[in-house]
Design a protein that fits this description.
5-stranded parallel sheet; 50% helix; 280 residues; two-stranded antiparallel ribbon; alpha/beta
Length: 280
């Protein structure tokens, strides 16, 4: 399959997903979570290509966690592609917002992914809301979704099943709903897109990723896929058929410290910040 045909089929796949699940409404502003990696850049490029036809607008947000020797290359790719497409890019960082970098605090936790995920989500949601965004589009692809599903399965955390699917509805006025335009696009397809289109992209792996459960699950699934091609798609199909994708009703509050949405009186970000500052 040539470049033009591959791009056309990929575009149509994402376009159909947006229509089938009503991911974006006309007139909305979509904030793209832009790391500079292949998945987030595909999300940016394809939404930029589709925004006129669907009647929405986009802005990009990049978060600098403070990972020396890794994050800067991703930010450079994010800046380059946003400028290329004429998309406004808003940059935020852990240092500016919380007064510490991930490099400084990761050792306090069992996995660096715990504080990274909490603070990234907190800052992304806060920034998107300040920009007046109606949706946050992330670059989660089909492989990511299967990994998340398997992680919740092995942990017995069935509550997380309600967070799967290409769209999370509004559950709190201060919490911007997430959409996943690449939900049924494989990681192999995003890699092929980047190569075929000569995209300036950050391909490096996070130095902390190898310490995470996700990394172990990813390697496990890739090994099975190499031996039995098509296994990942079968897992995805099984998940969709077996577990009904619908959100549970969750009562959310506003954090007593920062005012952001929280499942308890204090949000997870403020809880971790108190822990970190008590240890520094």
């Amino acid at each position: 399959m040539g470049k033009a045909e591959f791009n056309r089929k990929l575009r149509e796949k994402v376009k159909k997903l947006i229509r089938d699940y009503n991911l974006i409404d006309e007139g909305e502003l979509v904030a793209v979570a832009l790391s500079g990696g292949k998945d987030s850049l595909l999300t940016l490029h394809i939404l930029d290509d589709l925004r006129e036809g669907f009647g929405f607008d986009i802005v990009a947000i990049s978060i600098n966690e403070g990972i020396k020797g890794y994050r800067e290359e991703g930010l450079e790719a994010a800046r380059y592609n946003a400028k290329l497409l004429g998309v406004d890019l808003v940059e935020k960082s852990f240092i500016e917002e919380f007064n510490f970098s991930l490099d400084e605090i990761y050792g306090m936790f069992k996995s660096p992914c715990i504080p990274c995920g909490v603070f990234r989500r907190h800052l992304l949601n806060k920034t998107a809301r300040q920009l007046g965004a109606d949706k946050i589009a992330t670059g989660h692809n089909m492989d990511d979704e299967i990994q998340s599903f398997m992680m919740s399965l092995v942990r017995g955390d069935t509550r997380k099943f309600s967070k799967f699917g290409p769209k999370l509805e509004v559950i709190h006025p201060r919490l911007i709903p997430r959409i996943k335009p690449l939900w049924n696009t494989t990681e192999n397809e995003t890699e092929k897109w980047a190569v075929l289109n000569n995209i300036r992209v950050h391909l490096g792996d996070c130095p902390y990723a190898r310490l995470s459960l996700r990394s172990k699950i990813k390697n496990f699934l890739n090994d099975i896929e190499s031996e039995r091609p098509g296994t990942k798609k079968l897992i995805m199909q099984s998940f969709i058929k077996t577990f009904k994708i619908e959100q549970e009703e969750v009562e959310l509050f506003e954090c007593e410290v920062c005012g952001e949405p929280a499942s308890m009186k204090t949000c997870k970000a403020c809880e971790l910040i108190a822990l970190i500052r008590g240890s520094l």
